[in-house]
Every structure is written in C-alpha cells, then in structure tokens.
Queue: 3 jobs
Job 1
Amino acid sequence: MPSLHIEHSITDLSTWLAAFNRFQEARAKAGVRSVRVHQPVEDDQYIYVDLDFDTFDEAAAFKRFLETNVWSSTEASPGLAGAPTARILREVAVTP
C-alpha cells in the first residue's frame, strides 16, 4: 500500500489541525484509506503525516493537489511554517 509521507514545520498545532480537518472530504475523495499524524516529543512545531492509498497514482495525484491548491496558498494552509517535504513511499517487506 503506497503512503504519502509529509513533514513540515508548523506555527502551532491547533491552527494546523483546524486547517488539516477542513480537507477531510478532499482526502476521502482522493482515495485516502488511513491517516496517521505524529509530532515529535521534543518539537511541538513540527508535524509528520502519513496518508495511505490503494494506488501510487492516487498518492501522486493527491500530492499534486496539495502542492498546487493547498501549500501554495497561505489562506488554505494556515499553521504551515516553511515548505513541506512530501514523498510517496512503498512498503518494504522485512523478514524477522
């Protein structure tokens, strides 16, 4: 299952979460199957997001949507501080 891994600085968590939650419907329409959001214990101004998709094409399309429609607009992305890093990841099987 491909994942879109995103990380970036934020101004504050509550502002960022409010903006993130406004795009819940867009994520569902784009095919996001699950969402994981993490924040480092030692850095409350940084965030990690993993969005899982069924296909690499869905992940790539949503990445383009974020780059074009969300991250390029301060109105659409309040709470964002700096440029996000986004990569599409594939799972690697590990043998114990």
Job 2
Amino acid sequence: MRVISGKFKGRELVSFKADHIRPTTDRIKESIFNKLQSELPGAKVLDLFSGTGSLAIEAVSRDSGSVTAVEMNKKSLEIIKKNLQLLKIREIEVVGTDVFKFLKKYTGEPFDIIFCDPPFTEKLAHKLLTEIAQSSVYKAESIIVSESGGKELLLDEYLPLIRFDKRDYGDKIVSYFRPHYE
C-alpha cells in the first residue's frame, strides 16, 4: 500500500495483517482522487471507517485542509497511528469511536468531502448513507464518496442526498452523492 500522489507520492504505508480490513486498491483510490482533484485543496475531509488511514493520508498528501478519521477497531487505530508516525503527519485527527455514534453526536462545522468505506464483511453502506443523510456532517456543497460491495444494497437517493455518479469495479462500487434541495 502506498500514497499515489501529492507531497507523499510513492511513500509506502505500514504493512499489516488484519482480516477485517480490505484497503481501497490503488486503481480505485486513484480514480476517486482524480475525480475530486479540484475539490481537495483546503477541503475539510471526513474519513468514516478509516481502516488503515489510506484515504485520509491521500487527502492530506493532496493538500486538503484538515482530515478527521473515524475508526473504532483497535487494530485499525494502531495501523493508522503507525502510518501517521511513519509519514510525520499531524493534519489528521483520529477519533476512536463508533461511526454511527459519531454521526449522531456531531455538532461541528460540516465537512466538504466525506469518505465512507465500511467493512466489506458488514454490508453497512445503506445504513451508513441513511445515517449521514440525517446528520449534520455535510452541507449543500459537500460530496460523499461511498464504497460498497458489488451486490450490496445502495439506493440512488437518501434524501436530501442524491447519487450523481457511480463507478463499477466488479466486486466494489464507488458512488458519489451530494445534497439536492428543491
């Protein structure tokens, strides 16, 4: 696993053995970040189910303003912290809590970009988008990027969130949502 672009381009992340994590492949990560390229500089980013911190680190590498990484799994938190130490990154705030509790309790400034990559074994994408739609983590201009299994339930609308793009990578679907107000 490596950082694809930006100031940490080519830097390797720590290797790990963890059955609960299936990191976003370089191909998918590159596609996501190419699509968000103009949105990233200075953006306030939220990485839900952060796993290894790979998406959060890629966002910082590409000049996001700040990143909040939310992860509950102790092994994942260790991996994230090792990656941040390895690259000497201080712009990422790691929040060790349940993602759904975080969404319910969040009262801060909304995020510009939200990454959602729940554990592939859990099939949580539908539930996660439902919760995000009811939370205060986004604003009218936010973009929500959801990774889900190829056969996992994911609707086109979680009002006011509307899917505006969908990319199929076989066993993984990447969906892009943004608020739509009439």
Job 3
Amino acid sequence: MNYRITIIGAGNVAWHLSQALQKAGHEILQILCRTAKPARILSQKLNCGYSTDIKKINPLADIVLICVNDDQIQKVANQISAKNKIVLHTSGGIGMNVLKSTSKQHGVLYVQLPFTKSVKLDLNSSSVFIQGSDALTRNAIKKLSKAISKKVYEVNDDQRKVIHIAAVFANNFVHHLYVMAEQLLNEKELPNDILKSLARQEFSRLLSGNNLKKLQTGPARRGEKILIADHLKYLKTKPEYQKMYKMMSQSIQNLHKE
C-alpha cells in the first residue's frame, strides 16, 4: 500500500526522508513550514504543494510526518489536529505520547542517520526505529519504514532514548572531536587527509570488532603519563582542548583500570 503524506518541516530530515519516501512510491502531497523559502525549494524538488500555515493539512493525507527540531515537536503538536490520520514524529529522544492530542493513531519513525542536506545518504542501509499507539498504526509505520530501509526495529520510548544517547556519543561527539583535531592540523598548515586516512582505518576496526573496549589504543590506554603531560603542556594555550584531552584521558584510564 502506498500512502499519501504531508510533511511538516523542510530541514535536513524532511529533505532526505521526503525524497526517499517518494522514490519508494509514496505520494508527498505537501510541505508545511513556517518559513516559505525552504518549503518552496523542497516542494519544487518533490513537485508538490506547500504552505507556511502548518494547520492547513491536506485532508487527503493518510500520514502526517513531523520533521522539525526536537524542541519544536510539542509546539507543533499543540497546533495541529489530524484525528483521522496517522501522525508521526522523527525524533530519537522525544516520547511518543507528545502526539497523543493530535490523533488516536500516532507514533514515531526515527531514522538513525546524520542528516545533512548537502551529503547524499543511503537510507536503505540505515537503522529505523518505530513505535505506534496501536497494532494497526504500528503495522502502517512498519510498511512505511520498510519501503526505505531493510533494517526496521520496534522499540519503546526508553529503548529509543538510549539508542539516541548512544548515537550522540558515537557520532555527534566523535564528529566534534574530529573538528577539533582538524583545527589543530590547520594551525600548522597540515592537510586533513591525515585524519581521513586514520578515520578509514579506525572505523574499519570498529566495524570488524566484537568487543570495542578491547580495541582501545593510545597514550591513556597504555598509561603513558610523561607523554600525556607533554600533550597537555602543548595545549596550555587552548584551555578547552586541554580540558577535553584531560577528561577523555581520565575516562579511558578509569574504564581500563582492571
């Protein structure tokens, strides 16, 4: 069964998810977004309508997909009513019941990917975590999800929250550390290809290993106090970097005390 979908939001998640769903055969009826320009650009990409009034949900829609910032989901939910439709949000950390007032049929479709408009993503190999208010809704969300990914999992609020927190550690925090590392290299006019080569090797190890703790390397893991002290001395003019280095080194040492 193909669904007719209204999407609220025109950011990174909406950009990728709408195109993937359309490619899978579902019909994107409209884009609703308070800001006209991104809504217009996405609607042109999808050849569908758009509006800056999020309350104007197309009555023909089967599903309303809320793709907005996590902090805005409750606000959007308070403003819309779609009693005869399935209403979903796409957040990893917000509870399903935030949508309870919008429709009896509500749920979550959380795709675990780092969404950025400028970077092409492979949703088919991503993990999708779903929840639904009832069996009928869960079945519909599952069908929708399987159209864009091979890996679909049913979870509850607590499980999804832990999955999201783990992703923040493994992806967002790691990315920030790479940005910091790149800035250090830039100061000495060194190419960031150094990091790309290291990243390829490291993630190859991570994907092939079963016990990630055992794969840890580096000065902190080896307990090289003199080297760590020398690194901290080099970073003395960068207190934020020094603080991060010290905190991470201590955390690694604490984890490997045994």
